[in-house]
Amino acid sequence: MDRVTSTENAPLAFLKGHGTENDFVIVPDPDNALELDAAAVARLCDRRAGIGGDGLLHVVRSAAHPEAKDQAGEAEWFMDYRNADGSVAEMCGNGVRVFARYLEHAGHVTAGEVAVATRGGVKHVHLDKDGSVTVAMGRAALPEEGVTVTVDGRSWPARNVNMGNPHAVAFVDSLDDAGDLREEPPYAPASVYPDGVNIEFVVDRGPRHVAMRVHERGASETRSCGTGACAVAVATARRDGVDPAETGTPVTYTVDVLGGTLTITEHPDGRVDMTGPAVIVAEGVVDPSWLAARA
Ligand SMILES: N[C@@H](CCC[C@H](N)C(=O)O)C(=O)O
Any catalytic annotation for residue 92? Predict the structure, then answer.
């Protein structure tokens, strides 16, 4: 049974937003009154039968959510992130920028700094006056073990990078090498990634400039992935023999995604910042009879 609310089928307010065309259904629920189970999330994210999105941003006050209560002192709002298939993820880089844009849109915060609680810890987001949004993503973890990524019988060595969520970054000759990722999903070993993995395919575009495609865990191919772009920038820096911890100088990569461009800076202490757009495109109400039919 799909469960959108536990007690009633009241109209469900939503917004739609995107960051470099990584698009999200936004569901404001300050008091955590809704019971959004996996099936309900998948219905809302369905591009034909629902609203459509790569994921869903459930906007809840940290104090009202059992997974975020301990972050409430630092961040008033919790991004309860769900993938399009209804699965839960630790972090979403584009999502947290769009989440901050929503908080501004709704009048909960003004332009400037906002702290957002996530399953990957509190993220500090800066809403710039020029419309771009920068998020301090934290540090990347790069386990030494290499992994292999396979698509349709072809394999590439890949770098294992964790940005709070898992990534495998493979350097390829052409972005077309990955083929039709929606038809033929890529594979990376479950022994390394027991909870699944986001897989990025990367080509060089110029000095400190790359382009990527991504197959997201729980969402198939998307037009952008913020945590993925950070993983790609850090993996590319190491491939290029650049480590800010050794040089003492920040390094910035431009990462082109299918839906735009993200700018990623890694600092000498390992912190990674990401800058890109975040846009609210629509808001509305889900038809109560549609909700009722699904309940
Ligand atoms: N699109 C997101 C990542 C969303 C979560 C991911 N699919 C996962 O399961 O880890 C981003 O912008 O980072």
Answer: yes
